[in-house]
Amino acid sequence: MSIPPSDWEVVIGLEVHVQLHTRAKVFASSPWGFGKEPNEQVDPVVLGLPGTLPVVNREAVEKSILFGLVVGASVPEHCSWDRKNYFYPDNPKNYQLTQKDFPVVVGGQVEIELPGASRNVMGEHKFIRIHHAHLEEDVGKLSHAGSGSLVDYNRAGVPLLEIVTEPDLRSSAEAEAFLRSLVAMLTQAGVADCDMEKGQLRCDCNVSIRRRGVEKLGTRTETKNLNSISSVRDTVIYETARQIRELEAGRSITQETRGWNAELARGYVLRDKEDAHDYRYFPDPDIPTLKISRETVARLAKLVPENLYDRQRRYVEKLGLPYTAASVLVNDRALAEWFELAVAAHPANPSGIANLVANDLLRDLAASAGTAGAFDESASAPVSLLSCPIKPAQLAGLVKLTDDGVISKQQAKEVFSEMFKSGQDAAVIVDAKGLRQNSDTGELEKIVQEVIADPAVAKSIAEYRAGNEKAINALKGPIMKRTQGKANPVLIDQLLRKFLG
Amino acid sequence: MADAPHALSAAELGRRLAAGTLTSRALCEALIARYQTVNETVGAFTYLDQADVLAQADASDARRKAGQGRGPLEGIPVAIKDNIAVKGQPLTCSSKMLAPLVSPYDSHVAERLRAAGAILYGRLNMDEFAMGSSTENSAIRKTFNPWDLARIPGGSSGGSAAALAAGLVPLSLGSDTGGSIRQPASHCGVVGLKPTYGLISRFGLVAFASSLDQIGPMARSIEDCELLLNALSSADARDMTCFGPSDRALTPAGDAKKLRIGIPKGFLGKGVAPEVAAAVNAAVEFYRAQGCAISEVELPSADLAVPTYYVVATAEASSNLGRYDGVRYGHRSASAGTPVEMMTASRSEGFGPEVKRRILLGTFVLSAGYADAYYVRALRARAKIRSEYLAALAGVDVLLTPTVPTPAFKVGEKASDPLQLYLEDIFTIPANLAGLPAISVPCGKSGHLPVGFHLVGAPLSEAKLLAAGRLFEAAHGFAHQQAAL
Fold it and tell me: What's this model's pTM, rounded to 2 decimal places?
């Protein structure tokens, strides 16, 4: 994993294939999903039986348009489908319906955030342009068993949005950041689930290198079918090093299609340009050009959630959240919306709420789901808030009790744990446990004066008056003892200073 | 004999069934008896499940008895070309490639026929995958012209036309990509209608060239043809190119004597046999005498139709027939090897020579480096032909030509000359390229061989075509004609 010498620049473009979150397949009414028996999710259309015809699934088209709106693309007036002809047993019609000339999404951009110097520091932001995205059908899965081959068409016809970037990415870290950002946007808009373990997101990675300052792009290679973000990162690192090695040895780069062996962490040649398929594309005569009405676009525009980084900026700038908490919250739309409901119930202290949500709530949710630590920033496995026993307003109530000095911050943690177990309001727990702090100034003044008058503490008083700030703490213990620990510590401190001052 | 069920029209059979003087079972038994004596000679059918037919007939009779008859086609057999899916019946397209296939689903038209109470009556022979004009390309059997058993019935819906002319069935379904309903209708002396593209759902029609294919009704009279057309056309969400019926297509067209008829300039000179030209000219004179306005129209790009068709149709076919690979259904080669080798061997063994020829041609015209010169250019020519036809049809109601330049030729006569055979469709192809409705109406004989004329109308003008045909038919003796067998 050599770091490229600084006079080489890597140029990366990605083609990201995302299975859309739809009930039915893209050109058939057959449902689809994970974990079914082979060939359970097929029908005559999926199997390409003679006489069957494709019918475009509106839901898949609308999810595609929604993606376009999320990345600020222009939504074309029309889109259409073409046939990509090639023979392979996993392809039921021996042509794939795809969009070559008139895709459903044109343009757009994805904001990315690079890692900062530390977890608490925000990294650089950049925009990666989207060339286009087209809606096509997935193919089946071929497996070889003994002397024969088996094919499962459950995946055939699953709606696949292929998102093609401009060659704007300049490092493995940018590629990784792009994919994380893309996944967050797709999942937050409900366009796709992006579960990489289920093959719902696969990537083709185009890599070339050039001397820094040179405009012309180098010869690129395309590594196909990468099924995790780490594979993309590793491929970029591997392929960059390989190409530098080739060019520095005086050899040239062959334009070729490559594969990636994740176990061996190395790439290999699949086929070179001479073996490239002639797909004999032509417009599919079974699907008329689809008009995309502006009413549809307007309706879908209302479903676009707040952009991930717009939300992050708002949390930091308007709500005063520390970057660390903001970055955790915005990765999960449901969590962020939960947080905002709590803030709405108690607008005075967003940071106090964020702190409890980003730390205590996430920790307890993960633990209760039996997946402690499952929350990761890729947002591919967001912790479910559906089972959360605490409602946003309840959490706000807890923070308010703390802010009002009814309980201490330390007590708040204890109350939170109790709320997570029982789902009761903070105030109910505080009362039941007798945790309510004594903030009765008149009563406390009396106690403070009695303690000060006690000769046992005279030495501490003298030290405090002599300038030893910490000596005042020795007086707090006896006060707490007399109030069974319920005295408001902030108030006591104020009273002590007043009477000793 | 004239009163035997096989000699009667579908409309008359319907009246007798309604009156209770005939049962569907008696009708079907009579037709099965005729099938047993005649089909060997003519070869129209490739499959008939007699027990299933009689069960359907009994069910129909029971419905009628219970007062639940489903309309004018209740109890009437309709035979179906073997490229239209009927659940539980073979769907072979007369190809070795699909010989083992039984359809697990109904086409839209099969559903419509069931809903109308019709009897789904057997499978009809055709050119393999509807590619041909003589039914000689069937891998299953030969079909002969009932009017002369040494001659071809036309094609690709040769079985559909021959079954009608032989009195094997009163109604049949064909499909038409470049003339495959109208050309055999002309050769067999029956009526064949290719509807406007999109009027009838293609769901369940095995695709040859998707942008050209249409299912259509075939019958021995205009009335019967219309009866079947009305049953078939309805909107279908499973075919995105189907818009379903419209009032324009299916309502009476008014006074046929006021139709304006266009005669395309030069069409009668193009290798048209004198007897064909004479019969068609006589039809023109008939219409003139009836008061129709006859005028000559220019269709300057008409010569481009055949080459354009053989680029567009073969391009689509090369892709449409890609799915026949032995993996999921149909013929699978016994020779072992990798999956891709198995697919190659299955296709090499399963397809006949004409199908292979068209797949190769279509693959070539779509290939990188050639697509612009052939496929893209053909699309431009197609658009030009369409706009010329629409322009011509803005000035007249219908265009009248022969359906086919010459009467039915002898079996084997043109088998070695595909280009000569492709000219059989010279008058019928433009309607497919332009998506227009067209009909072949019997109008005479060349010796003992039937001749038909061809009418093309504007989109959704089926009613006008039928009205024009009805006017002619009523004044001539060609309706209900059957060959003596």
Answer: 0.91
